[in-house]
Design brief:
Elements lengths: L15 H6 L9 E7 L5 E7 L1 H10 L3 E4 L4 E4 L8 E8 L6 E7 L14 E3 L4 E3 L7 H4 L3
Parallel strand pairs: 1-6
Antiparallel strand pairs: 1-2, 3-4, 5-6, 7-8
């Protein structure tokens, strides 16, 4: 469906149901979702969404993912308070990856860092190049 319509003019629309029906979900019914800060372009994290997570995110404006480790929907910030509010959700040209433009409150990473991409690789090594902005013990205290 997406490939069949890639030459349509700007403004061409598909129904949300048809679009979600034709996403290329993996064997577990998931599609990768890259979260990006809407105003700076900073890539914050990568997570997974299933159809329910996508529909909930679009309906509520609060980003919801599917947690593979928990085996259930996970509303970003439900335990840390560091929420993501939806600005836009985009589907790539192959219909196999989502780009979620968000307004992130505080750190996006469970380590207390702003983003999850704090390991920087070069030809000889991989180095942590970002410090936590919040101690994870404080972030997740109950």
């Amino acid at each position: 469906m997406f490939k069949d319509n890639e030459h349509q003019p700007e403004g061409f629309q598909l129904s949300l149901k048809d679009a979600l029906d034709h996403l290329k979900y993996n064997a577990e019914g998931l599609v990768p979702a890259i979260a990006q800060q809407h105003d700076t372009g900073e890539v914050l994290m990568m997570a997974w969404m299933n159809r329910d997570a996508i529909e909930e995110t679009l309906a509520t404006g609060r980003v919801c993912y599917f947690s593979r480790s928990r085996g259930k929907l996970w509303r970003k910030g439900e335990s840390s308070g560091q929420m993501q509010m939806l600005k836009a959700l985009r589907i790539d040209c192959d219909a196999d990856t989502l780009l979620v433009s968000v307004d992130q409150t505080g750190p996006a990473c469970h380590t207390g860092r702003r983003d999850c991409f704090y390991w920087k690789a070069d030809t000889d090594s991989v180095t942590i190049d970002k410090s936590p902005i919040i101690d994870p013990k404080e972030l997740y205290k109950k």
